[in-house]
Amino acid sequence: MGGIGKTALALEAAHRACAAGWFPGGALFVDLRGYDDDPVTADQAVLALLDALGVRGPDLPATATGQYDTYRALLAARRERTLLILDNVSDPGQFLPLLPGTDRHRVLVTSRERPDALPVRRIDLDPLAAAESVALVTRALLDADERDDRPAREPEALRELADLCGHLPLALQIAAAMLRRRHPRAIASLVRDIRKTTDRTPLLDGGPVGTDQYGRSLVLRPVLETSYRRLPPGQARLLRLLALAPGTETATWTVAALTGLGWEAALSLLEDLAATCLVTRVRGTAGDADPRWLVHDLVRAFAAGVVAARPDLREEGEEARERALGFYVLCAHMADARLRWLPGEPEPELFADRARALAWLDRERTALVAAVRWAAEDRYARLSVQLAEYLAEYLEWRRYFDDWITVASAARDAAHRTGDRRAEGVGWDYLGLALRHAGRTDEAIDAHLRALGLSRAEGHRGGEAIQWGHLANALLVAGRPEEAIDAHLRARTLHQTHGHAQAEADEWNNLALSLHAVGRTEEAIDAHVRARDLYLALGDRHGAGIAWNNLARTWEAAGLTAQAIGAYGNALEVQREFGDWFGAGMTLGNLAGVHAATGDPVRARATFLAAADAYTRADAPAEAARCQSRADTLT
After folding, report:
1. Long-range Cβ contact pairs of 291-294 (< 8 A, separation 24 or more)
2. Residue at which a domain ends, from 309, 344, 374
3. What was the pLDDT predicted at 375?
């Protein structure tokens, strides 16, 4: 990739190697300017090399053949090992004729492209690490003025500037030059200016910042433009469309959807494009069935800018995004169906089991959430609302509540804007669920009431039943159990009327919690038992596990300790089977409390530690810390 620091690294390595005595014959350097409008040819380069070797004037052979023969003869006769640096190569034809005819010497070639057809050792360069980027800009500022205290005063702004530069050395050098020119203006002022733009490259090239130590202009956009112009049409199209993909990493199947190509064709083009170093295959995915690809932030911004500049390319991009969103909706639907699947139902397609559905959702979560945000544009509203609905179960399961709030809000707004009141009600309802889980109970109640009002106005009885139940759960959390009981009874009656056995089981289970909260323990036990039996009859083992845990808590409160311990054990078995580590943490914490209350501190401590481990696996550090603390008190 242009601007990654190939020349700087090659020259620094050469200086160090020569200083260490590895090349007593010194180093020869030629800039082949492979990406300029007029690249240096091998015939031109050999003249420069002969001049460096002392062959000039009347000693210079008249023909190219003679010049190459003389060049190779001089290197063959040169006893001291020499390093030949051929910089900025765009085509093997530029450097192959310049290779020495002996293996005594060494050659270092820099290029934005990989010469895969040649048996050469390749070293790929990545953007700098965050700390290295900060150090580069800091050093550049202090070298110019040792009194420049901006890096020390604005460490957060400096880190953000490095992020906005994509940790690309060329962009960082340009940013440092801009800061030197702006002195004493704050680093944050440049950060604000860059953040306002969608394509950062014009801003970074917005002023005369001079040249680097090698005499090259510090400009970014021309570097990207030359690389882009050299691409064949198919690769150029793929780069433009890949720049529009949601998320930072993109799977090959998603690229196939964006481009409208088959998987094999998309993979072949991606591999060709990777050879130009404009995209990168994500490490660790070499053996994956669906490799993932990364586009540098500045390349992405540049390519997106190319799309935005032309009406025909904009329409091409809109069609690509619509295909990608349709692909995500299809896959998310299949994954959601697998997560909700019960024995006896038709097997969902695409994902063979729950673990594979969760693995796909985990890999694609960032992109899926970003894709739902496309709902802000009416063209994608319908598909984005569908995608949000299919993500709800997963986001609740993984406890990604902030993402869930984002997704539900986008879906609600899109449905409202397009006049789909039923979908708007679903969006409000999912938003209420996410808000309740995030601890924003009053907002959750308001959201469920809005959902309920829309469903009743639309005559959507199924939605009304679901929303009464969700409202009831929020009311209980808000400390209003009597109102929650009334709402649960409304929901249960509607579900029974429409024959929704699964939802009826949920209402029995949640009703029991509200009954228990007001001291109606016997009724609560009966409701939990009804819920458990309904879940088991439906083959919903995970639902049964939740009912077992809740039933155990009620039995514990009623003084039925033996029954409670047995029920906790049943719940834990199911939760471990499903990988529900947050649920397992709750069950183990409850069970540990029983052991502590019955005078068994050793077992209580071990169970609290097991609860802490389960919470850790569920990425719930606060809950894990509480259980660890409880265990420590029993040491």
Report:
1. 291/251, 291/252, 291/267, 292/249, 292/250, 292/251, 292/252, 292/363, 293/242, 293/249, 293/250, 293/251, 293/252, 293/255, 294/248, 294/249, 294/250
2. 309
3. 81
Looking at the fold, whether 44 and 107 belong to one and the same domain comes out as yes
The predicted pLDDT at position 569 comes to 94
Residue 445 has pLDDT above 90, yes or no: yes
The answer to whether residues 634 and 597 touch, using CB atoms and an 8 Å cutoff, is: no
Q: Could you report the per-residue pLDDT of 556-611, keeping only the tens digit for each?
A: 989 999 999 999 999 999 999 998 999 999 999 999 999 999 999 999 999 999 99
First and final CA of the chain: distance in angstroms?
Answer: 58
Residue 35, exposed/middle/buried by CB under 10 A (0-12, 13-18, 19+)? buried
- Measured in whole angstroms, the distance separating CA 45 from the mean position of its chain's CA atoms is 45
Is pTM beyond 0.70? Reply is yes
Q: For 294-330, how does the pLDDT look when each residue is reduced to its tens digit (9 = 90+)?
A: 998 888 888 988 999 999 999 999 999 999 999 999 9
Q: Is-contact 443 435, C-beta < 8 A?
A: yes
- What does the alpha-carbon distance between residue 450 and residue 467 come to, in Å, rounded to a whole number? 10
Closest CA to 273 of 247, 307, 309, 299: 299
| Furthest-apart CA atoms within the chain: distance in Å | 111
Question: Which of the listed residues 76, 111, 146 is the one where a domain comes to its end?
Answer: 111
CA distances from 503 to 156, 264, 498, 500 (A): 49, 43, 10, 6
3-state secondary structure of 500: coil
The CA R_g of the chain, rounded to the nearest whole Å, is 32
Cβ pair 444, 432 in contact under 8 A: yes
The enclosing H or E element of 31 equals strand 27-31
Q: What is the pLDDT of residue 197?
A: 81
Of 34-48, 94-108, 473-487, the range with the highest mean pLDDT is 473-487
User: What pLDDT sits at residue 286?
Assistant: 45
Question: How far is 217 from 557, CA to CA, in rounded Å?
Answer: 76
Domain of 267? 231-309
**Amino acid at position 410, single letter:** A
The full 3-state SS of 321-376, as one line of letters, equals HHHHHHHHHHHHHHHHHHHHCCCCCCCCCCCCCHHHHHHHHHHHHHHHHHHHHHHH
CATH code of 296's domain: 1.10.10.10
